[in-house]
Each structure stands twice: as structure tokens, then as C-alpha cells.
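Thread: "does anyone have the structure for this chain?"

Original post by V.I.:
We have the sequence but no experimental structure in hand. Need at least a predicted one for the grant figures.
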Amino acid sequence: MSKKCGIVQPYFFPYYGYFQLINLADHFVFYDDVNFISRGWINRNYILVNKKRQYITVPCSSKSQNKLINEVELSLNSKIRKKLLKTIRFNYSKAPFFDSVFTLIENVLKLDTNKISELSIYSIKSVLEYLNISTETHIASELPIPNDQDRSERLIEITKFLGCDNYVNPIGGTELYDKEYFEKFDIKLNFIKPSNIKYNQFDNQFVSNLSIIDVLMFNRPEIIKLDFLSEYELI
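Reply from O.Q.:
Generated one for you, C-alpha cells below.
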């Protein structure tokens, strides 16, 4: 039977499409030993603030595209933690699943680490546990595969090492990766394209593609896992 592998940089409470890929995969790898992406999703994401999309950001003291993700340090103290939590509480306190989700977020921000990679990975793993998703996860820097290879070659090596024959990439990778090249190494390449999901956000017009935080606040875990995480196209 074919086994699927997903490999993506660790993001801070990423959007639901990220979890669709994890839920689909047999093995998922947090790609922590590639270059940090400035103004990307590694240390920030969108939440709902005053009925509009707004960033929530975890500050980093040494972020640079010349550093690997797992080398970038946090600049997160108790004052900043309180400010982040205050923003979330103010904007979501009346959401139906606020209590359990806010506790989850509090626990993530209490993590004893100075690395953004570890915090972001923990944010994702905490959501996986909350949604009862049991996909086996790995950290790229802990695998015995060097990170000095060509981009496609390394993804192929990781996929094979984990005993998979199907590599699934987010839809944005269609411009980066070639199916025929992967087939030369007996690896099938697919791209996951999330469908648009919609749910009630208080009484305002729906704002799409926010952090998983927003999805969790307004929806029962079972609905998210069984319905929302199945709304995609595999191409």
C-alpha cells in the first residue's frame, strides 16, 4: 500500500491547510534545517481582530534568511506573552470553544525554549493532540540525511528513508517541483489544494485563511477533523 510523506517548514499555529496535509500523510516532517523565511509564517499568522485579518507575531531576536530556522532565537518574555494572550482573549473570549483553545495557546506560549522552531513545532503538535490526529511526525534536523543536497533530491531522500513512495507538497510547490523528476526515483509527487471552508465567526462577514486558532475557536474538534480537514483536492 502506498505511503504518503509531507515535509514543510514549522509555522506558528498555521492555517487549516497545513493540518490537512498532516492528517493525509503517514509521515510528516518538520523542515527545520532550511533557511528562515523573513515575513513568512514561521513566527506569525493571522487572527481575527475587530472583524478583520491581523497578524499575531512571536518576536525573534536573530531572524535572518541567512540562518536556518532552527538557529533563529526567540525574543519572548513574560510581558510579550501577556500581550499576545490579551489580544487573543479580547478578540475571542465570546467564541464557543474559547476556554479549551485558550488553555492550549497558553500552554504553548509557556514552553521553555529560546528557539522559534521548537515553539512553532510545539504549537502544531498541540493542535494535533487536540484534534486527535495520530500521524507520525519527525524533525528534519534529527534525521540522518544531510541538508546540503539539491532541494528535490533531499525531499526524495527523506521520503524514501521514512518508507514512503508518495511525496505530497502544499499547492504552492507546483512551480518548484516536477512530477517527472520524482518519478525517476520511484516517488509519486502530488500537491494538496485546500478547498474553501466557511463557518460562523460571531455575526460578522466571514474572514478566510486565518490561523488554525480561529478555526478551533468556532468549531468542535470532531467537525474540524472529519469535515474541514477532508476538504481538499489532491492533484
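V.I.: this helps a lot. The first strand starts at residue 4 and ends at 8.
O.Q.: and The two ends are 19 Å apart (CA to CA).
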